[in-house]
């Protein structure tokens, strides 16, 4: 089958493990309390890893934070615009799939 047509000038959204983890935490911050964080997360050196660690710290400091509160905590941060767009993306799957995806992305 042919690939779907894109708007002229539109960039393809690159799905990376870090981006997936950020999207999942942004959409469902409570998922963090349902998984075990890997020991080497501080050593990850990939694009977005610093943002991911910042999100994790904010969620850990406020376990009941909502998606909107988490997003707004980045207001004024250079990543805010990208996070705002990412927050509009509907997460495919269900709670169990999200938990598994987040756990896998953080390994």
Question: What do these coordinates show?
Answer:
With 107 residues, the chain is mainly alpha-helical. It is 47% helix and 0% strand. It contains 5 helices and no strands. The protein has helices spanning 17-27, 49-61, 67-72, 80-87, 95-106. α1 (17-27) packs parallel to α2 and α1 crosses α5. Residues 1-14 have low confidence and may be disordered.
Distance between the termini: 33 Å
- Envelope shape: globular
Order of helices and strands: HHHHH
Biggest sheet, in brief? none
Which percent range describes the beta-strand content? under 5%
Helix content: 40-55%
Report the count of strand segments.
0
Q: Compute the number of helices.
A: 5
Q: What structural class do the secondary elements suggest?
A: mainly alpha
Stretches where pLDDT is under 50 for at least 5 consecutive residues are 1-14
Mean pLDDT: 81
User: Which value, in Å, is the CA radius of gyration?
Assistant: 14 Å
List the helices and strands and how they pair.
Elements: H1 17-27, H2 49-61, H3 67-72, H4 80-87, H5 95-106
Would you summarize the structure shown here?
The chain has 107 residues and is mainly α. The protein has 5 helices and no strands.
């Amino acid at each position: 089958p042919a690939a779907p047509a894109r708007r002229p000038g539109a960039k393809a959204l690159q799905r990376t493990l870090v981006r997936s983890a950020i999207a999942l935490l942004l959409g469902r911050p409570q998922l963090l309390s349902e998984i075990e964080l890997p020991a080497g997360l501080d050593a990850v050196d990939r694009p977005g890893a610093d943002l991911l660690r910042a999100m994790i710290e904010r969620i850990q400091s406020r376990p009941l934070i909502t998606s909107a509160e988490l997003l707004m905590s980045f207001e004024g941060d250079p990543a805010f615009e990208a996070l705002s767009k990412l927050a509009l993306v509907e997460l495919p799957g269900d709670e169990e799939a999200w938990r598994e995806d987040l756990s896998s992305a953080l390994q």
